[in-house]
Design a protein that fits this description.
It is a single chain. The chain is built from four helices and ten strands; from the N terminus they run H-H-E-E-E-E-H-E-E-H-E-E-E-E. It folds into two domains: 2-53; 89-292, no CATH class. The two termini are 84 Å apart. The longest helix is centred in the middle third of the chain and has 51 residues, at 122-172. It has a four-stranded antiparallel beta sheet, with no helix packed on it. It is elongated. The relative contact order is 0.18. With 315 residues, it is α+β, with helices and mostly antiparallel strands.
Length: 315
Amino acid sequence: MEVMTKIKNTFLQNIKTRLVDFKNWYLQASWKKRIIIIVLLIFLLIVLKNILLGEKKQPYTFDSVQRGTITQLVTENGNVIASNETDVFSPTTGVLDHLYIKNGDLVRKGDALFTVRSTATPQEQAVAYANYETALSTLTTAQNTKQTMDATMWAKQQAYLAAQNTQNYKNNNKTNPATNKEYTDLEKLAIDNTVIQTQKDFTSAEQVYKTADAAIADAQAHVTATYLAYQATQNTTILAPTSGTISNIIGLTGAKVIAQVSSAVTSTTSTASTQAPTSVTPVLVIGNTNGYALSTTVNEVDINKVALGQTVTVL
């Protein structure tokens, strides 16, 4: 034991002497050497830390493979709608003058729903009616024009057929029946030119006639639009277009309503085409609440994950 104690004391004394010598050397060394010593000590401490305090690796676990069922949850957004819903719009722009029903009431087809009092001025009513009268006149003109075009087309066709007959006779005979002499070159050329010209006249008349139906359709659409615009200036009572339960009434008596009609012209002489109907909110909805449907869209990523007959949870 004494020998071990002496060896230990001698070892500690040597270490202490070396540390004192290193300290004296370090204090007398240049600043560059001091920086190098500091960097080396830091690096040595980092290495020792990683060795002594390094994270222990998680052990691997093993298990046998088993057959099972993988369940995937697909979440989509959609709308729940009642079957046979019917939006009821106002044909008149004005205010609700009277409501005969309330939300939740069951109505039959033809029952009175509400009355709308027009807010149009007498001048606006007169202009709307004048536009309607002008549209009716334009429609009548278009229909008469078609008849005229039809007569013209058939007259042109008869002229073309007559010219063809004359040409066929000339091609099969040498004698001109009008002169009882042999056809001259000038007469032959005139007959052939007549066929060409009458054919062009008939083709042109036929093309013009074919456009008559488009003009009539446009005029008829204008009549419909101006009639609806005129109706939008009149007081009216709206009847139920179908049977069902009332819902989504937009307001109480005195609420403003807007007619869903095409934008009609304001000039009594204009025959411009009508525009698309303006999107407005329906006054109420009549629906059959005996059944509901869920409308949704499944994206292309999830479409292969769903199939007919699968359970669906609606939240």
